[in-house]
Amino acid sequence: MHTSGVTRAQAGSVSAHPWRQPATPWTASAEELLADLQVGAREGLLGAEAAVRRQRVGPNALAAAPRRSAWQILAAQLESLLVALLAVAAVLSAAFGQWVEALAVVVVLALNAAIGFVTELRAVRSMEALRSLGRVHAVVRRDGRAVRVEAEALVPGDIVLLEGGDVVSADVRLLSASKLQANESLLTGESLPVSKSAAPVPADAPLAERSSMLYKGTSITRGSGEGVVVATGMDTELGRISELVAEAEDETTPLEERLNKLGQRLVWVTLAVAAAIATGGLVAGKPPLLILETAIALAVATVPEGLPIIATITLARGMRRMAQRNALVNRLSAVETLGATSVIFSDKTGTLTENRLAVDQLWLGRGRVSRPDQGAAHSGAPFVLDRRPVTLGELPELREALEVAVLCNNASLGEREGRGVGDPLEVALLEAAAAAGVTREALLERLPEVREEAFDPDSKMMGTAHRLDHAGYRVAVKGAPERVLAACTRVAGEGGARPLDDVERERWLRRNGELAASGLRVLALAGGETRDSEGELYRELTLLALIAMRDPPRSDVRAAIAGCRRAGIRVVMVTGDQPVTAASVARSVGLAEREPRVVVGRDMAALLEGDEEAGARLMDADIVARVSPEQKLELIRRYQQGGAIVAMTGDGVNDAPALKRADIGVAMGGRGTEVAREAADMVLKDDAFATIVEAVRQGRIIFDNIRAFVIYLLSCNLSEILVIGLASAWGAPLPLLPLQILFLNLVTDVFPALALGAGEGAPNVLSRRPRDPQEPVLAGRHWWTLSVYAGLITVAVLTSFALALGPLGMSRAGAVTVSFLTLAFAQLWHVFDMREPRTHAVINEVTRNPWVWGALALCAALLLAAVALPGARDVLSLAWPGGRGWALALAASLVPALLGQIGKALGLGRVA
């Protein structure tokens, strides 16, 4: 779209005269504004001039909030109940003169904080890097052509082209507008969109009434327009009112909150148990130091120190893994929700199909004209009528139809072949016309555009008016065939236009249905003339042609949909396209196991308000076609009421409410609007449906990994509690000392748990039904499983301790060392219990994880060092156990693992 009546500034070279940034651009006329900014509306800035201006004004970006500093991350490691508990233990140890123990607790605290710091720092930096992957773009006119640039590259004087769904990336003064509306709630608080025009407004108009301006951060909700950038970066209205320094909000996911609460509950339970044991010990007359030692040991045995840290790093690693697979996740909480997805509402174009539209054929009044060569633009491919090539001179109605397709169009072919800028449908129209020698630039020189009626989802049409050499205006209209036909009174034919009666209209509608049923995207093209450019465009039109475009299904969609079916996930096509076209695509990609069940948008209200059978018909539909944005919202709400977790794909501004309402909003990164991407939880870089399925798979794997390491950590900690508690209840010496437990929690808990969190998942992860989103991290079956594991480890440790003290006649230090080694190695072998029942005992998701083997090797080396090195041995109150001690510890540690593997073979001990 070009602006008429605008004075062209010198644009043939870098401006010789300095440009001025207007103080109140909303008051100036377009001519004055362009003169001040030294730019021509049709040419835009030269690339060299844009670079000069960017050096002067800087990048078009707001002051960035500072990254979370390393010191802040380190300080966060000390803000927990665990740290307070261990600090109290250190103080009490020092108070009783146990300086070595007190110092060791401090060292362990420091090590624990260091591990948390390193892992969380990596997680935070990983998430920051992910957020930087999303780049906002804008379409501008530079060097006389439309190009797509990063929003940060915008400078004052850039001519920007705006359409519904765009996010405004700078402060813009409108030069022209067609049905343009913007959502300015970010600045004004007004929730309803406001209408915009190019007319100047008074200088004292408040921001909410500056109808000739668009402001950075707002969004276009309807229509289209052109404008000139008048301010960028911190000079924009948003920049002036925003805080220069803003703390980034930490995001705590529901899963992390549940894990934190679980850890806190365990701490309080242990404190209660420790208090009870201490009270009982005092009543029984036991030494206070022994009671204190027991209480401290119980306290430190309870808390799974690595739980929150490992949860964060697992989620962040999952986000990074998804990004590598073309799925950018905007929120950590979306990762856990993905694994519970049970319904995917998918649009058709570009998600199930390749979004590579090419004109296949046109139906004129005299018959079918096809394009045998659908190559790139400017290829010179002929059109064929009745099996013979024809020229535009032979078919004037074909020329007129192609001219309408070019005039009623906002796309641009650009410099290189096949690299159009704009809506793929409009690019396909330009390519087909260019192949016949009809170009937009040449037509607009002869027929300058004076008005545009932007595409409206309600009317499903777009129209433009163009000045003719004689008095009057030429009208070009394209849109949904049924809507265009309703606005036509004549039809072009071989001998000229003739009246379009009801019989002829029905014949064209049947032809549209036949084309759509074969999987083609069909538009109607119509034209006319008018004396009044501001009058109604959609009346008294002449039908010129039906133009059919082909968009082949993506090659990987059929397999992806079959994978969804195995995973218990329903896929429903929700599209604005015709039912027959949608059904054809659905059959080609295997969307339904039988003939697709289709519901049309106009019937939805009756089905929603009808009886149970009518509601079931809607819920059983494989396709919902010709659907409006409001109906998408209602469809999502109905499924969610039934307990479904809904993922919704979308690309347009009209999809934004549905993307927000869905449990997982999925926007298209390639063809999606900025509004859709901001509203979504996940952005697909490749716009592929198969990427959604892969993201669901990764979501399930991440949740499974988290559940596995939670079971692992808690069963290890519970075994420590049982060992201390039972030994104390029997009046036996403590098999484990506080420092030893801290060391074990630091070594045998954190590293294997981190390895479990990095697992690639079971091959059959998409063969299970979606999990219940209300199910807690640990259900009843999981508590039973981890209790059994903890009990087996406890029996092994207490048995080895008793044998070392009794039959083997070892000293107390030697026996404690045996129980310490038994517990440590039993916990290490316990990692192999985290596989699923009835999976292969040797080759499974745990043994295939290289991180597990690395963690086991590291932990074994640290345990050997703790016992072998005199300094470490003294601090931990250990002794060299000798050959018999080592044999007893290793043999006893293997018993729980062997029993666990027998249980797996019997189908017991489910983790997922």
Describe this structure in words.
By secondary structure, the chain is an alpha+beta fold. It folds into four domains: 119 residues, Distorted Sandwich (Calcium-transporting ATPase, cytoplasmic transduction domain A), CATH 2.70.150; 276 residues, Up-down Bundle (Calcium-transporting ATPase, transmembrane domain), CATH 1.20.1110; 150 residues, HAD superfamily/HAD-like (Rossmann fold); 193 residues, 3-Layer(aba) Sandwich (Calcium-transporting ATPase, cytoplasmic domain N), CATH 3.40.1110. 46% of the residues lie in helices and 16% in strands. The protein contains 30 helices and 26 strands. Strands 10, 11, 12, 13, 14, 15, 16, 17, 18, 19 and 20 form an eleven-stranded mixed beta sheet that branches. An eight-stranded mixed beta sheet has the order 8-26-25-24-9-21-23-22, with helices on both faces. A hairpin with a 4-residue loop joins strand 14 and strand 15. Helix 8 runs antiparallel to helix 10 and helix 15 runs antiparallel to helix 16. The radius of gyration is 35 Å and the shape is elongated. The relative contact order is 0.09. The N terminus is likely disordered.
